[in-house]
Amino acid sequence: MSVLVIAEHDNSQVAPGTLNTVTAASKLGGDIHILVAGSGCADVASQCAKIAGVSKVLSADAETYKNEITENTAALIQANVSEYSHVMAPASTFGKALIPYVAALCDVQAISDISDVVSEDTFVRPIYAGNALETVQSSDAVKMMTVRTTAFELADAESGSGEVSNIDEAGATDWVQFVAQNLSQSERPELTSARIVVSGGRGMQNGENFAMLENLADQLGGAVGASRAAVDAGFVPNDYQVGQTGKVVAPDMYLAVGISGAIQHLAGMKDSKVIVAINNDEEAPIFQVSDYGWNEDLFNAIPALQAELSQ
Amino acid sequence: MKILVPVKRVIDANIRVRVKADNSGVETANVKMAMNPFCEIAVEEALRIKEAGHADEVIVMSAGPDKAAETIRTGLAMGADRGVHIQTDDRLEPLTIAKMIKAVSEKEGCDLVVLGKQSIDDDNNQTGQMLAALMKRPLGSYISKIEKNDAGFAITREIDAGLEDLQISSPAVVTADLRLNEPRYASLPNIMKAKKKPIDAMSPGDLGVEVSNRLTVVKVDEPPAREAGVMVSGASELVDKLKNEAKVI
Ligand SMILES: Cc1cc2nc3c(=O)[nH]c(=O)nc-3n(C[C@H](O)[C@H](O)[C@H](O)COP(=O)(O)OP(=O)(O)OC[C@H]3O[C@@H](n4cnc5c(N)ncnc54)[C@H](O)[C@@H]3O)c2cc1C
């Protein structure tokens, strides 16, 4: 048995979700290899070689893979898959687009967003916005899946000693041309791996008011997230969205401010260690899942909290 | 140009689902059903492309039991021209569904397939990607914008780090994210009109697709419940609890 983990990265830094995916792979008990497809990505390959449990890094360093075009990475995986019993990628937008694509190329039924490994062919995954957990057994020769990164610890990033081997480019398409990326710039920790997340909802009323949450997040060393309502209203960009159809987070502390607690929102944060909610509606469903609830107008609560924290 | 929109009938997004006592699945008897919200967005976008003069026909299809025809009717009431119903009572996995959509798309000669990015029941987020791979057509996943141009389509994707613009050639497969549009409601006259629009019924076999599942559902469990904790009355009490009780700050 051997597992191929697909690294997510930006050509200079491996994304933390890759480390959680390696931990999921290690539950299978076989050899773990990592595929790094990118351009000018030698640093990523050496970072991956140092991840505990990884015996080999397959590096495909070519212009073709510069922008993580699904079609090109999928063709590369297909060309190398015969050596492997399992293929795993983080359940990020990168992995969620890629794995089903390569699975269909290989006539495999992919398994989405696994939260537990039961055995080499049986996995648990949340369905219905996390309101049920489905255990599925796969009869495919190769198992291909995305991994809910919050359900697995980060693998140690320093203690491994894998070898790096270069592999050939495979099958580029010209159907898809990269035009531009418009990425949110932030000095704050990345949302899905932050230890503390401060999220705002419709109750924030506008984008300017989010500055309060940003200041609070900075005081706490956390990231800022949002509900769908806040994103749809244009208060914050799409990449802030936490939930069933946005990002899944499980920080040590999740602070929900002016968020009602719809099931689709809870789907993205209810595995947080400690949940704190500030809401001026004492009936808000978010209080039913909160460890600490504060029934208060957020425009009073946030400044008071900031003052208390700076003491 | 013809556009194909596959749609799925799911438990309504506002219903709280219950796991069955025998752990075989979730309770679907007497539960309100609706078109998957992402599929509604896909139908809406196809209609807008047609209304902008870039397409002549929008076909809505669904695979599933008799009741799936209701979901096709919803798409017709929104404004789609006709329906295709692949009738089957079997449990369907995304790979099988993608094979069915491919067969319909080829039979109908569609230039664009618009799907929802994910269905809110199985939360798989797979079918569009699989379809693009099987059809060897460019994939635009998680789009929040699409514009027809001479080279095909200019699309914007919602990705974890922000937004990404791609140019893809035509014919293509795209999957809709939440912010692509806000779907219209079907007006009463359009609901009446939809009753007369044709729905072509066929079996998976008619399309040459065999329903063969690769996954066995071993069981479906309730997730561990989260208990409500305590209410605090002020900032100092909250900070004290976070520092000394929860020890998270
Ligand atoms: C297909 C689909 C997918 C979805 N995916 C997601 C998803 O991924 N993530 C997500 O978040 N949602 C998602 N949703 C939307 C979800 O159903 C809710 O509509 C959304 O989460 C509500 O956001 P909200 O809590 O900010 O807004 P609301 O529900 O409007 O709640 C606002 C809250 O703010 C409180 N408030 C208002 N003013 C103040 C004040 N001054 N002080 C304190 N509190 C105040 C109110 O009491 C209320 O509880 C999805 C829905 C669908 C149908």
Offer a few descriptive terms:
heterodimer; A: 311 residues; alpha/beta; Rossmann fold; 2 domains; seven-stranded parallel sheet; 8 helices; 24% helix; 28% strand; B: 249 residues; two-stranded antiparallel ribbon; 6 helices; 27% helix; binds flavin-adenine dinucleotide
Could you give a quick summary of the protein structure above?
Chain A has 311 residues and is α/β, with parallel strands linked by helices. Chain A contains eight helices and 16 strands. Chain B is of the alpha/beta class.
Would you write up a description of this structure?
The complex is a heterodimer of chains A (311) and B (249). With 311 residues, chain A is of the alpha/beta class. Chain A folds into two domains: 2-166, Rossmann fold (3-Layer(aba) Sandwich); 191-309, Rossmann fold, CATH 3.40.50.1220. Chain A is 24% helix and 28% strand. Chain A is built from eight helices and 16 strands. Chain A has helices at 16-26, 42-49, 70-80, 93-105, 210-220, 228-232, 263-266, 298-309; strands at residues 2-6, 31-38, 54-61, 86-90, 111-114, 116-119, 122-127, 132-138, 143-147, 163-166, 176-183, 196-200, 223-226, 253-257, 274-279, 292-295. Chain A has a seven-stranded parallel sheet with strand order 5-9-4-1-2-3-10, sandwiched between helices. The longest helix of chain A is centred in the N-terminal third of the chain and has 13 residues, at 93-105. The radius of gyration of chain A is 20 Å and the shape is globular. Chain B is an alpha/beta fold and 249 residues long. Chain B has a single domain, classed as Rossmann fold (3-Layer(aba) Sandwich), CATH 3.40.50. Helix content of chain B is 27%, strand content 30%. Chain B has six helices and 13 strands. Chain B has helices at 37-51, 68-78, 94-108, 127-135, 188-194, 235-245, and strands at residues 2-6, 9-11, 33-35, 57-64, 82-87, 112-116, 139-149, 152-159, 162-168, 172-176, 199-202, 215-221, 230-232. The mean pLDDT of chain B is 97. Classes of the chains: A alpha/beta (311), B alpha/beta (249). Chains A and B meet through α3, α4, β5, β7 and β8 of A and α3, α4, β7, β8 and β9 of B. Flavin-adenine dinucleotide sits between chains A (201-203, 227-230, 241-246, 258-260, 262, 264-265, 268, 279-281, 284, 297-299) and B (13, 37, 120).
